[in-house]
Amino acid sequence: MGSDQSNNLEFLKEIGLGSTNIGGFINGQWKANGSSVTSVNPSTNQTIATVTEATVIDYEEGLQACSEAAKTWMTIPAPKRGEIVRQIGDALRAKLDPLGRLVALEMGKILAEGIGEVQEIIDMCDYAVGLSRQLNGSIIPSERPDHMMFEVWNPLGIVGVITAFNFPCAVLGWNACIALVCGNCVVWKGAPTTPLITIAITKLISEVLERNKLPGAIFTSFCGGADIGQAISKDRRIPLVSFTGSSKVGAEVQKTVNERFGKCLLELSGNNAIIVMDDADIKLAVRSIFFAAVGTAGQRCTTCRRLFLHESIYANVLDQLAGLYKQVKIGNPLEKGTLVGPLHTRSSVENYKKGIAAIKSQGGKILTGGSVLESDGNFVQPTIVEISADAAVVKEELFAPVLYVMKFQNLEEAIALNNSVPQGLSSSIFTQRPDTIFKWIGPRGSDCGIVNVNIPTNGAEIGGAFGGEKATGGGREAGSDSWKQYMRRSTCTINYGSELPLAQGINFG
Amino acid sequence: MGSDQSNNLEFLKEIGLGSTNIGGFINGQWKANGSSVTSVNPSTNQTIATVTEATVIDYEEGLQACSEAAKTWMTIPAPKRGEIVRQIGDALRAKLDPLGRLVALEMGKILAEGIGEVQEIIDMCDYAVGLSRQLNGSIIPSERPDHMMFEVWNPLGIVGVITAFNFPCAVLGWNACIALVCGNCVVWKGAPTTPLITIAITKLISEVLERNKLPGAIFTSFCGGADIGQAISKDRRIPLVSFTGSSKVGAEVQKTVNERFGKCLLELSGNNAIIVMDDADIKLAVRSIFFAAVGTAGQRCTTCRRLFLHESIYANVLDQLAGLYKQVKIGNPLEKGTLVGPLHTRSSVENYKKGIAAIKSQGGKILTGGSVLESDGNFVQPTIVEISADAAVVKEELFAPVLYVMKFQNLEEAIALNNSVPQGLSSSIFTQRPDTIFKWIGPRGSDCGIVNVNIPTNGAEIGGAFGGEKATGGGREAGSDSWKQYMRRSTCTINYGSELPLAQGINFG
Amino acid sequence: MGSDQSNNLEFLKEIGLGSTNIGGFINGQWKANGSSVTSVNPSTNQTIATVTEATVIDYEEGLQACSEAAKTWMTIPAPKRGEIVRQIGDALRAKLDPLGRLVALEMGKILAEGIGEVQEIIDMCDYAVGLSRQLNGSIIPSERPDHMMFEVWNPLGIVGVITAFNFPCAVLGWNACIALVCGNCVVWKGAPTTPLITIAITKLISEVLERNKLPGAIFTSFCGGADIGQAISKDRRIPLVSFTGSSKVGAEVQKTVNERFGKCLLELSGNNAIIVMDDADIKLAVRSIFFAAVGTAGQRCTTCRRLFLHESIYANVLDQLAGLYKQVKIGNPLEKGTLVGPLHTRSSVENYKKGIAAIKSQGGKILTGGSVLESDGNFVQPTIVEISADAAVVKEELFAPVLYVMKFQNLEEAIALNNSVPQGLSSSIFTQRPDTIFKWIGPRGSDCGIVNVNIPTNGAEIGGAFGGEKATGGGREAGSDSWKQYMRRSTCTINYGSELPLAQGINFG
Amino acid sequence: MGSDQSNNLEFLKEIGLGSTNIGGFINGQWKANGSSVTSVNPSTNQTIATVTEATVIDYEEGLQACSEAAKTWMTIPAPKRGEIVRQIGDALRAKLDPLGRLVALEMGKILAEGIGEVQEIIDMCDYAVGLSRQLNGSIIPSERPDHMMFEVWNPLGIVGVITAFNFPCAVLGWNACIALVCGNCVVWKGAPTTPLITIAITKLISEVLERNKLPGAIFTSFCGGADIGQAISKDRRIPLVSFTGSSKVGAEVQKTVNERFGKCLLELSGNNAIIVMDDADIKLAVRSIFFAAVGTAGQRCTTCRRLFLHESIYANVLDQLAGLYKQVKIGNPLEKGTLVGPLHTRSSVENYKKGIAAIKSQGGKILTGGSVLESDGNFVQPTIVEISADAAVVKEELFAPVLYVMKFQNLEEAIALNNSVPQGLSSSIFTQRPDTIFKWIGPRGSDCGIVNVNIPTNGAEIGGAFGGEKATGGGREAGSDSWKQYMRRSTCTINYGSELPLAQGINFG
After folding, report:
1. How many separate domains does chain C show?
2. Domain CATH number, residue B284
3. Of A31, C473, D333, D431, whose Cβ has the fewest other Cβ atoms within 10 Å?
4. pTM metric for this prediction
5. Residue B362 lies in a domain
6. Rounded to a whole number, what is the distance in Å from the CA of A274 to chain D's nearest CA?
7. Is the CB of residue A254 less than 8 Å from the CB of residue B264?
């Protein structure tokens, strides 16, 4: 399969992939009439396999079937929908290793993280099964005799999910597990550069639907580019579009969806900081910064990109970090011991280079790293940069393992620095003082959606709500009450008496 | 006061109004440098009083003070903020009659509704006091040992509230009561044509703040026009803008606010239907339709504008309705017995005339009403129109007492008709069958935010969430978990151990 | 295995049972030093297998290990505990058929119900897995600056579960699934007459614990009699005892547990009524009454024992019921087509006979049934009795398929009759009128814990809370917030500032 | 009024009290046929006024009226009931000072605490008003098509409240505010030694009921002794009895109520500890211990009775405490500057004396205090005792200002000491380490219902749930979901279709 020599690709067969693959699952059939694209191994830039993408005409066919399927799916009792999601979880569990391997191969993250990503969908399935008996509405006391007030949650119908390359399947999992138990069909467009993952996950879900004699169109999926994304954004049949990607593209998607009064669930750019206080457990902090800054080669939305060190521990922490950066094993993500894989594409490497140049021109001092590695793959050096908080680059998300380090003198200053960028996804503080912890998570603390203490900025659990404020888009996925976004709320007042009392005691006629 | 001869305006003094008034409450001071406008009595088109509007420069001064006040207000414990809102409620209660009278005078709704509107703010205050001890976050079990996961709710800082003439103060109440207990300052722009209400309510709130030695800038308010609205929409210091108005303007506000990654809470156009089934309690239905269609002279966002009658009871219901329409007393809203007051402005009357013309040109048959009344005021006849559901006018919100009547044969058809317009605010069915009730409130029932049974489309209680889907904008105000929109959610993971286990069991380094 | 000739018992091996079995799982070992008892097939009164029961000394050994294991189990993160429960669910799923068969064989219920009972534990496991990430505490706003208020839920330690023969494993499932994810060890005493089920379920759970290298003592189980039950009730190491059985024994258990300030979760006697209104769907009502009254041979706690028929449909419903009663197939519960199996024991048959005699002596008229069937097994005729609501027998729970029928004239009378017994478990009404439905479930309606409409009194779903009021004991199991009973709640106020403000504004010193 | 010369008792008239008073409010009338008792000022042991107590015959008359009133009250919409409670809150607010003064006079606590106690009822009223729109049931997804599952909360009918002398009105407030908005009538028996408070509070509530033309029997109250308490406990018309008092009497009440399958809400003895870690803010700790141990003369259920000091700060803390104890002003609670008032009765003084003797005989060393003061009143010295944790007296609640001090070496030991008594009400730790805080509030931390950090054991806010575990009785009052105890939960499944699918997929016939 493919021309890639560096890996044994036999495992792809286990998850239904071949050397050529069809990139559209439409009305329960594999079908795609678009151009043929290649899936490329970022470690070698060799082809893994080819995929035929879907066209906008394919999309329309898919959506018609999906709309029809929605009428069925939404009337199936939620716990029965939960049972389907449970079976999807079991199917994933049975293929955890090859799926995790595929994520590592096609996206470029290390195997442990590839498997972790698939595990996250499994966790989501397990969670959603329980949720399927808890999508509770409310019975609210009415001020009028012989009246009852209900808050009822009904399915939306169809949820569109547009995901990014860096979490090529977990984000689908966050959305699809919840959307499905909530009674919605799912329309998925995976990232253009990770089509094999899109296909593998879709196959597995489609098999569960088939085994249960349910319409395949309940889960409709497309490999494709911006035209499919645009079609989803404009489609009035899709009340909710969940989009993961940059703030720039997200803003466009939001505008398009809002123009038709649709809703968005946005997971956009992050620019996440770690603050290390003078009283911090330095060992814990250093390990965390290292994982947060170089893990996934800096390509998580929760990657730590800004580091604020109290002046008293500044040199110490930087020394220890530099030591780790120098020893870190960069290479094939499927090899044991590798901690840093390649950037995802050649254009990511170009971006890194442009970023480094901008850093230098804006007065940044490169403490370690800063170069592209000589290889066929997209490998770059994890980089630490000393720079002013005012530099323009510091306000932007550079999607690569580049860490900006800055010094501060007290908590207020550190929080102000943390909050001084447009993005508001994740943030973390290292401290041992309760008052610092509670200020950090309080009204005048971090303005992010994720506010950690003594752990990295990345590595969220599914039980909480994941997402961020400001230019990160405000969406919340996975746990807590995120499910409410996937449903339509109605406030129902039922008069079962024969009188007509009015609210606020109004007398009319 | 003013030149209006038709009413005794002495009561305006009780609530702090004079013949000239300053339309800006800025940094705790009454101040406004804009043009002088008149508040007009819609029953007579005579001037009640004059008001100096605020300018954009006034706005900027107000916002700077407000931003400063926000730092104080957000750190006051929520139950203490609740105590302030309780005092506001008591202050309103003490002035219920003159305030209700002012609403009737300046907006044009009948006195019972004017008092009901003020009562609604009082109810909101009482409700918000309790809420101030229940703005609960969550403690979520972490999958990692020695970790705790919190979901914390913090204040946003400042909430902008832009309200419309038809509920010139209740909508402020929905927003401000919740926003304040949640720890936010409020910036209010009232409707340009109801400045006296804006000033009267602001005075009363400002006095409570003063009595408690709190910065007046916690509540900042402006009489003014689109320039002030625009300034609010664009202002990065205002994370949430709550806007009530037409879908058209709302879409613009949303676009502007989203461009800066702010959030909107939209209460836009409705186009609300009542369905009467063959088994309905006809007496209850007729009374409800009448109140829903002619109440507030058809100027509620929840006014019933479309009526779907089962063919078997079509003639009967129309006969009874026509009878009521012919007898209804139209006139001075402050006079006893009046059920229909004037439209709010002369341009509303023009709009009504254009609507009637369009109806006729699109094949609508006017069953009763259809004319403007001869008078100095803005009085029009409540109107019933027989028309096809396909007519373009039926898809739009005509803000006047015009009711479109259509016939149907079965529940599915009636629900499809109900759902066939762009708006999705309120809807109601009259039936005595449980299966019809539960289908109506279920996944394939009404697609509106408010889904009633055996009561009118209007007259919501504050305990539920108020708002609508689709072109109505998706916002939810007042009860249920609406308060969450006024707060910033953060998911906090706290590691209190000395190890660094990762989520999803990932092993890194 | 055993001497029973009527069934192929080979399947018992699949679930780890032999002809002799050890009835104690203590500190991860199978061990029991009590007397040997036989498990008897109620269809034949032949022995299935023998079981050695545990002694009070065995109990003490088990509890010491369990107390030790509790320290470990409670500190394992809840989602990890959920993963164990998920594996238990999968293990049950793999043995659904033989386990269901065993329930039918040993308890005597028909196979469909036997399998349904095991399915219910599986459903509980799936539900509990989701719950393991949602055992949420609260963060409550404090009235004091620099204070936070938490409501935290911690494990109790050990939960004692004493179950009855009629649901020999489902009730364990309700309790154990929730207790385990909540962080508690479980001590189970199954019914003395269903030891094989106790052992089979315990084996399966113990294997999951072993596979995960967890202490076996997390799940400690005993076959035994009243001495073990008493030991549990008195044991100060067991903060919560969940007991299912008669009101009489339950009251004793409660007294014993309360004396040591322990807590009880009681599921006691029911005396459940169905009301059929004049407007009811008679076909639906008759099918429901039939299932509710004769299903499980009248040995469910939710069995319908009292039937209130509106006078206008009295004769019609009774006729249809009598027809069904005459045709119902009574016999071996493992045979296809059987709807009524045997009573569980010979003493149940004696009880039935005594009941029939008392009915007759109290003026009851037997409309159908009333006799014991000639056979080696414990078969009796399902019975319908016309009797006055005032008869003493009507106030008691006769654990057999005997249905008391009474006539009424209006809803108020029917509700009064429903509420006129000491028990308060389940109740059901058949009607098509919304006002009747809402009155029935409202403040002056049924006083039971389960209040159904147009379904039988039995057959609860796990998503709701199961249990009843008054002499039924007030416990609630399975869904909703039942989990809170398995945890210890603490209200924590944390001062992270350096001042000491007091609540209610008190000034001290 | 009365013969007390030490205070100006004119203020009693303001709250409706005279020199003789009737101690029963029965069916809306003041009426009592029992013996005449005197209310005594504990500072002087002089009579304040006399009160005629109610008899058991009066009780029966009251309960009959109350049962009748319950039928009305439970059908009034909850928000309307909330409005009544709001008016009660306003009535209390208007009399805050004289009521607080009466509490100080009759109970003996200092004026600031007397006013604080009344303020707590006012807070409860405000809270309950909001709650009256939030007594929400749930709509739970059913696994069966065309079925809906509801969890509905209905009123219990009547709630019995038996309160103790130390919080003669706040505990009534906790219970009555919630019970009333939940739709229950209240039957109150105040403490026999604080009849004037019982009467004053009842008067004020009765006036609100009267003003609203509601039956006075909604609130029924008795001054009386054990016979009235017993009557309440045995009364089948009272589904819930809320009892505050000693563990010993509480156990009796529980037994009596349970025998008739009623429910109890118990607030019994506490034996509350403060732990001071080596890293604590000593100043904060000392102030807190002082308030917790000597406040209310040691007569709060949350009074700190046990003090565990880390060995490294043992001497320092004791020194500072001893200093405060020596200077504390003991005397007339109505006088400015007094921090310690009298014990409530002469028998409390006897009890204190016996306690001191037992302490000495069990090896306790009195570090400061230990004597009764010479005076006409019931004044004793606040006392600090060094004693072994094993001494029998340390396991008991001595209701007087006696503090046992013990030394420890590490957190585990301190927690074990905290948990080593039968009672489980309140507990507190002083520390600055997050790991200590989270262990303390975690599964292996304090086993109490109230688990504080850096604040005293006493002084709870109403937003949380108040109450304790083990011999403290397990009840929870005031905030959180305490309201659920005052309601009857029903799980309702409504079939609105025409089929009869069964749960767990069972097929029957």
Report:
1. 2
2. 3.40.309.10
3. A31
4. 0.95
5. yes
6. 19
7. no
